[in-house]
Batch of 2 targets.
Target 1
Amino acid sequence: MSAELDTVIHAPNRLQMCCMLAAVDIVDFATVREALDVSESVLSKHVKTLEEAGYVKVSKAASDGRQRTWLSLTAPGRKALKTHLAALKAMMANVPET
């Protein structure tokens, strides 16, 4: 297999989050939390892991009179996701149809 799985992205919630972020420029933390159906603390841990890897950018801005957290997938994050998905597709190509 030419492409390798990315252990940072591979966790189901992080993979789902990266796929969600790949489809948009920026999304607020609450929207991601609701989509993944996880607590704020669980999502925060996943965001921190992706941020430390350089895959996600976190920004804060006031909106409707309160501070909101925004997430976006970085260029390295998009590249890592593309490589990870290619590895998954290569693995799936070896699975016989049933």
Target 2
Amino acid sequence: MQGLIEMTGKDTNLLAAFWTIAGDTHPDDAEWISPDALAVRAEAASKAGWKGIGLSLDDCRYSVQKYGVAGVRQILKDNGLEFFELEILMDWYTTDGRREASNRARREFLEFGGELGMCNLKVGVSHLDLTPINQQQMADEFAKLCDDFDTINATVGLEFMPFCKVASLADALPIVQGANRENGGLIIDIWHVVRSGTTYENVAAVPANLIKGVELNDANASAIGTLMNDSTYHRKACGEGEFNSPSFIDAVKKAGFHQKYWGVEILSDFLRKASVDVRAQHVFDTTIAQFSPA
């Protein structure tokens, strides 16, 4: 397919999403801040072979307060981390009281993202939102969001999650297609694909221009406990579960994925308790092994 980059273990760029190397912090925490300083994580990531890193808004804010904007930029540059993502904006489509807090976060994402050279903003839908899905209204709001972040040359990726109302690829596609923005599309996480019942064949059929990010990980064939429990405690490094990462990677390539890096997002108790060097090296090594050799 035209535009497809042949990515192999030799030339693949990997980005460590925030949770992958954040350490002993959890989505239920009041603030998402790693106990390991950004400089420590960035150095460990660089030594392991990563080419990019993701931060939560809380962690980014904390790091800017600690190092200054110029200091954060220098940390990323010194460690060869050329790809940078921020996450995750929620309630961007709401029309009630939740929107005020979402808009404040949106302004911060724009500010930090612009100053630090963010490649991509991850957005999602809260599992606490039980209102009926309105795909057209969400598409309209997603278009406005894309327009905002186009001003800082960033893409916006909507991540479907099986424990929220935008649960599957089939739910998310009409939203990004309806928005019809060049810098807007999907984040396709293998865990969300498998647990939502989406097939790899479905992934291979997604138009390439609508894939703004991919996230790799692994897990057991069946969820352990609730989907939320499985997602936040029991993900595994690629090749250590039963998702068949190479087949997923092949499906993404068949779709024509042409972004410059592949994301890796793993939330697990093992990684939370491991040292930062172990987190960075183990996940990098197991992920890169899933790609065909050059």
